[in-house]
Amino acid sequence: MPTGTCALKDAYSGAGGGLVDVDELKSALEQAVEGLADIGWKRMFGCDAGFRDGNIFALVWKEGRLGLKFPQEQEFEARIGVSGSDRWAPGGRQTKHWVLLPESVAADAAELRAWAEVAHASSIQG
């Protein structure tokens, strides 16, 4: 299991006015889900997306944020309530179960892994 701080700490959300390297974000997300069952990647919504058994549960939003899907209301509400979390709203359309991760989660390998494990597990339940 990953531990420590991801290299994203200063780059997440475009700190300093620059854009976050989506390849760096994808690498952090790939490390977070390493070893979890039945992971596949493909392009969707103009970004890289993680799937479990054909069900999308994670994405690297092209605007420089990581997103995870929490179809269970309790899990979604717990995560959207964390300071810095946002609903994913591509093209201005707010999604129902997607949370764009706060920097505090994205930049902490262990925390990112914990959130990703929940999204991964719930992807076959919801």
How many independent structural domains? 1
Radius of gyration: 13 Å
Element-by-element helix/strand order: HEEEEHEEHH
Helical fraction equals 25-40%
**What is the strand arrangement across the widest sheet?**
1-2-3-4-6-5
Gist?
This protein is of the alpha+beta class and 126 residues long. It has 4 helices and 6 strands.
Give a written overview of the molecule.
The chain has 126 residues and is an alpha+beta fold. It has a single domain, classed as Aspartate Aminotransferase, domain 1 (Alpha-Beta Complex). Helix content is 30%, strand content 23%. It has helices spanning 22-33, 73-80, 103-106, 109-122; strands at 39-44, 47-52, 55-61, 65-69, 86-87, 98-100. The protein has a six-stranded antiparallel sheet. It is globular, with a radius of gyration of 13 Å. The relative contact order is 0.22.
Task: Throw out a few tags for this protein.
alpha+beta, 4 helices, 126 residues, 23% strand, Aspartate Aminotransferase, domain 1, single chain, 6-stranded antiparallel beta sheet
Write the layout of secondary structure elements.
Elements: H1 22-33, E1 39-44, E2 47-52, E3 55-61, E4 65-69, H2 73-80, E5 86-87, E6 98-100, H3 103-106, H4 109-122
